[in-house]
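Supplementary Methods. Inverse-folding protocol.

Structures were first reduced to a discrete structure-token string of length 248. This string, shown here, constituted the complete conditioning input.
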């Protein structure tokens, strides 16, 4: 009975939200226009500036990689203060949680725009925006991982006279590191896609190149840049799978 009630609630929410966005299948009757637009304007790919585009692809990866590494490096130790089972005081738990909630609630593009008057146009506003946002995201995910770990290894370290730090290092970290690495590569992919959006506000990389070429109706260049994005995301996906396999 509960399953049917749950299914009814999901269907009701689907219908309610669909009505809100005015979803209508009849709107797709001209979907062929989009395919014709791609066929007539996107091919053959324009690779005349391939070297420059590849350089911007590398810059996009550098922005995403640097910002996510810094973010996880800050969020990992802070998460122990935001987990109920490892925080020393309830006030610290609620305070750190509130900070994490605030950091991830502000969109990256808003943060980047805020930092442009200070840092100017270029990658740095995007880097700072991604670091701040990802600290909030990593903080929430890692603190919840810490709260769900098995108590057994922690009790073993405590019974041997281990301090709070030793319990964290030897009773908790070995359990969460594989999951943190998995979440890291997922967030790295998200950061790459976010960099494409931040290119609109002058953050550089493939996002800015896409924005400029769209404005100039250079769709064959856009098509080549889309291929580069697909290669970048796929490479990160395979690298993440390889690292996760090695860690596990």
């Amino acid at each position: 009975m509960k399953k049917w009630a749950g299914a009814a609630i999901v269907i009701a929410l689907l219908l309610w939200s669909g009505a809100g966005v005015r979803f209508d299948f009849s709107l797709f009757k001209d979907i062929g226009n989009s395919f014709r637009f791609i066929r007539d304007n996107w091919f053959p790919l324009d690779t005349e500036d391939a070297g420059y585009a590849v350089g911007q692809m590398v810059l996009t990866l550098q922005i995403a990689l640097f910002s996510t590494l810094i973010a996880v490096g800050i969020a990992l130790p802070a998460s122990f203060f935001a987990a109920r089972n490892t925080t020393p005081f309830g006030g610290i738990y609620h305070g750190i949680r509130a900070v994490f909630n605030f950091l991830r609630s502000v969109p990256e593009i808003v943060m980047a725009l805020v930092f442009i008057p200070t840092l100017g146009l270029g990658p740095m506003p995007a880097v700072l925006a991604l670091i701040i946002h990802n600290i909030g995201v990593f903080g929430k995910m890692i603190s919840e991982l810490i709260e769900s770990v098995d108590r057994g290894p922690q009790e073993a370290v405590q019974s041997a006279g281990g301090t709070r730090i030793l319990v964290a290092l030897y009773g908790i970290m070995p359990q969460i590191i594989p999951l943190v690495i998995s979440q890291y590569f997922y967030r790295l992919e998200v950061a790459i896609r976010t960099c494409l959006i931040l290119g609109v506000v002058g953050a550089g990389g493939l996002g800015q190149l896409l924005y400029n070429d769209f404005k100039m109706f250079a769709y064959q260049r856009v098509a080549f840049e889309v291929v580069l994005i697909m290669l970048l995301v796929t490479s990160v996906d395979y690298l993440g799978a390889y690292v996760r396999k090695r860690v596990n």
